Structure formats: structure tokens, C-alpha cells
Fold:
Amino acid sequence: MILTALFTLAIATPSADDGILAFADAFDRAQLTQDAAGLNEMIADELVFIDGSGKRRGKKDFIAGWTAQGDRFDPVVLIDRKVIPLGSDAAIVSAETTLAGTSGGQRFASRIRFADTFRRVGGKWRAVHIQVTPIR
Structure:
């Protein structure tokens, strides 16, 4: 998962993205700005979230990870962003970035590659599968 001031994008735009890039940007913005209500709306209840340790988690864990009190996130730059359409109502959006900020009063930085799978349900895009892989 953007506010212009928070997010610089390197975008590979498909010829007919049908709103998926705008949704992916809004999804990323909601994460970085810790918008729990926005994330709740944008994420399908049945979300499968594979975290950086390989554990399967769900919607509640994903939102809690982005909205923990006291956590703050720095602006990010997406590298090698790809959009892979999966028909007219689904797509995978992936990129590499360094996620940095503060957590528990301590600075952190993690270089990751992520893949967000979005599906359009009832005319609205929703995140249905998210996988995060640490780059070491």
C-alpha cells in the first residue's frame, strides 16, 4: 500500500489499469498514515496476510501492525513497481521499498518486497492477499 508529500512513485502503468493504481496508492497511503478506518474498508474480511516471517495472518493483524500507537512511518519510494492484471476484477501490485520509521521509540528500517492482490467486489477494490518478503 499515496500522499504526494509522503510517497514518491516509480510507476509501471498497464494500458488499462481500471483504477487499480489509484486504489493501490490509496491503500499504501492508508497504511503510512495509520488510517485504521480506511484500511478496514479497503481490506476484505477474508484477507490472507503472509508476514515477513512467513506466518499466515488475517485482516485484524494486518491493521494492528500498521496502526500501533506510537509507531510512525517515514516516506517511502517504490522501486520496480509492477501491476499484473488477473482479468477485469483482480490484479497483483508489487514493488520493493525500504520501510522505515519509529516503533517503541526506536528507529527501524526494513528493505522489503511486497505483493498485494486486489479483487473488485461489488464495484469496489479490496485487498484479499498480501505477502511481504524481507530482502537481506
